[in-house]
Amino acid sequence: MSIQSQAPPALSPSQRFLAAILLRLRRLINQSVASMLANREKAAMQFAKRCSSTTGRR
């Protein structure tokens, strides 16, 4: 018994428009989250450097 895959039905113009909007929104959110994580990582590294420099002087 063979299983044939069926192509999804073609999207209507309004569905294509919505899909494009959602794709742009997803990219914007991904960039925002990546930027937030980079800033947190930078802050954590600075905090770790300050902690190590203060404990190393004792």
Structure write-up:
This protein is 76% helix and 0% strand. With 58 residues, it is mostly helical. It is elongated.
**How many E-type strands?**
0
H and E order = H
N-end to C-end Cα span: 76 Å
Low-confidence stretches: none
Report the mean per-residue pLDDT as an integer: 88
Give the C-alpha Rg. Answer: 24 Å
- What is the overall number of helices? 1
Quote the beta fraction.
under 5%
What is the molecular shape? Answer: elongated
- Which class of secondary structure composition applies to the elements? mainly alpha
Largest sheet: none
User: How much helical structure, as a percent, in the residues?
Assistant: over 70%
List the helices and strands and how they pair.
Elements: H1 13-56
Comma- or semicolon-separated keywords:
elongated; 1 helix
Short note summarizing the structure:
The protein has 58 residues and is mostly helical. Helix content is 76%, strand content 0%.
